[in-house]
Queue: 4 jobs
Job 1
Amino acid sequence: MLIDSTIPDFSGEQIQAVQALINKRYGEEIELHLGDGEVQLDIEDPERVDCPLIIWNARDCNYIISRTGEHRYIAQFFYNPKLQYSTNPAQFAKVEECVLAVLQAQCDFELESEGVPIDSASKEPETSA
């Protein structure tokens, strides 16, 4: 697999955009952490690549946005490190789309965990007529 060895850090503008989205979602200032981590970019290739990360915790859930290329972002959320969840689609060209997708995926997961059926096509809670 061809790997981009020069993955840029998140820009200040991108960090501010992420901050604004998550603050709006939770209605309060959520602390962001920046770092680097090894990310397996291809499930069939065990090689890991150092990628810039944005990490936060809200309501006992942890979130990670990984920058995997110039215009490539992936996201995960988890309550327990052994059980991690990602988004569908798995990769995004804009960090804002990636953040919105992981927030929606976590919200859907939470609703389903509470027994509220989610229509996977529309991502809206199903209701009985």
Job 2
Amino acid sequence: MGLVGGPRRDGFSLIELVMALVIFQVGLLGVVGMLLTAQRILTRAELVLRGATAARAVGDSLLAGGTRGNGYSDLPWGTVSWTQLEDGGLRVVATGSSASDTLGVLRLWPPLPVDRAGQDSVSGGTESP
């Protein structure tokens, strides 16, 4: 018998169990929300990495080959476009599947030409080893 004279009950009441389940569900929904946000951020980071890597590769290839002019290349994840700048440099832009989704922008300049005496043709200085 209990203290008041009624039967003694061990365990939890139905209201306590329902409240515990509601609190557990709120926490579980928070965890699922964080996982979905993390997945979205990682997907975006992978896309930015692909864009920056492709932009760098295209820019280096164009500069190494001495190619001049403007152009673009469509890739499965987006587009890499390049523009010849007035100062001799190159502007390379990587965009995602939507044109407003810019993943990376690079400005590259060709290396200074070096004559056989080891001096760059612009400043006349010696090239360091």
Job 3
Amino acid sequence: MQTSAMSSSIQRSLHDVRNMLWENPSSTVSDEMDARGEDALGGKYNGPADERSHPSHPRLIQAGVNVALPLMCRVRVHGQENLDTTGKKTLIVYDHPASIEPLVVKQLMGQQDVRFMAMKGVFVGPLTPLLVAAGAYPVDRAKPSSVAKGHGADLIHQGVAVAIAPSGGNERTPDQLGPYHMGAASNAVHGGADQVIGIVVDHHPANGSEATHREKAAGLLAAAGFATGATLLAVLGGPVGAGVAIGGAALAGAFIGAAAANKAVRPARSLEAPLRMGVKAVAGLVGAGAGAAAGVALLAAAPVLAPVLLVAAGTVAVLGMARGWQKRPVLEAVVCDPIPVQPVVKQYGEQEAIPQLTREMQNVMGPVKAELTGQPYDGPVLYEKRPRPA
């Protein structure tokens, strides 16, 4: 009866996850924030009160990015030599098909100071201090304040690089550039930028051939080490052995649950690759949690299974997780040729230079995106502000 109830609960959870992420896939948080002009993620805004950037602990933040990003995806960078900001006032623009792109920009910039314009709605919850420490500052896109509009230009004028996604949020069509807002170009023009550097990003699932021999060896060594240590602890017994047995049962259950959830959830092919991967990832987390609970419950019901769960299932789980890491998604990042800003300003004047520079960004980045994704680039499209609903 309990097993049936747990199975039904897991199915309901997965159903809720699918509905949450699949319902109206063309609708985005960015759209809702445009319509409401406030936080669309839920929760209270707790970002910088003055709407300015206040970076801190730069070495610690950079180290965290350098560790976290390779764990999440396999990054391949092209055109790194184009990211030369030495002695040049620089605006960095990047396309935004998912949510990981700011981390890519941060890693590419290394120890160079770079600030990020971000939607006000993301400054909620426990990650806000990390966003602030990383140099992010908020903008309410529906009702931008004079401070938010001017802060980026001020930073550029001071020689600090600013990174902005001209799409204003996640791209509605991740395989192609969407309409661009003119705010990024406005920051460049009014800040007296020397150059705009575009970074184009594309992610796709791994095909299994990317894993290196070193990664495969590391997975086998981790599994062998776990098996050896678990066997010794199982023989020794005692509180430590019991604790590790519980951990092994939870680990094995989590792996099996995550694998089962990933098999059960099949995102619609009509969804773009980043959203499909997001659906699978959330489903895997839900399955892992349920599986861990089931593994501990099974161990409590049948303690005699402890050595088997600890050694065999735990080892398989470690090996499976290593295999999953080896097949992590591939992220391609291309740093485009810099776009000189001042010649555009001299030719068109400040006011007309803003839309011209926005189109030039798309004309430089669009063909690169098309080459990465295989989708055509149909020319620049500027964002048209829609009226807010009453």
Job 4
Amino acid sequence: MITISRLLAGATLAASLLNISASVFADTPAPVQMLKNPGLEGTYNPVTPSPTTKSLITGVLPAAWQDGSDWADVDIAYSELTTDVHEGKSALKVEYTAKRAGVCQMFQYIPKIIQGHTYTLTVWLQGNRKVPIDVYLRRTTAPYTEYGKAVVVPGIPWEKVTVKATATDTIDACFMIRPAAPVTFYVDDASMTDDGPAK
């Protein structure tokens, strides 16, 4: 026979376990978003390539995002997409139409990554199912170390890309997107979080 005292003891144990679980979840901080304007929303600003570039780079980019192709010799037009976006009101359309030298690349500058930490990068892309696109975390200065990279060939509908990157330096870095060849593709809803020391 189950006694009242046993029932009470069981209820007390269950309540204690629930309190411990709640405490564990409460003490686990939510990941901190490291990107500015991760949703590629808000005001889109005119691209301002170097006056000495050989590239033809035109159009607008969302705040906090930059073109990194003016050292090359390519043709790129950036524009705001307001229909068929992944989430929110806007996404970025990239029309990469010609490559004579170098590459097309866009990025967001990350002020500092920490040696030994692992980072999770995500972004939603659309493409033509023909041209590979690199998504990666890279050091901003020589030797331009790539700490983690995913290579995808996105199509329609939107496809989520996830990269796990472990920093081998404490240094400034870039969240970068780079198609392998001329292509029209679309970018929306990026993210970068610090997962802490690599395990």
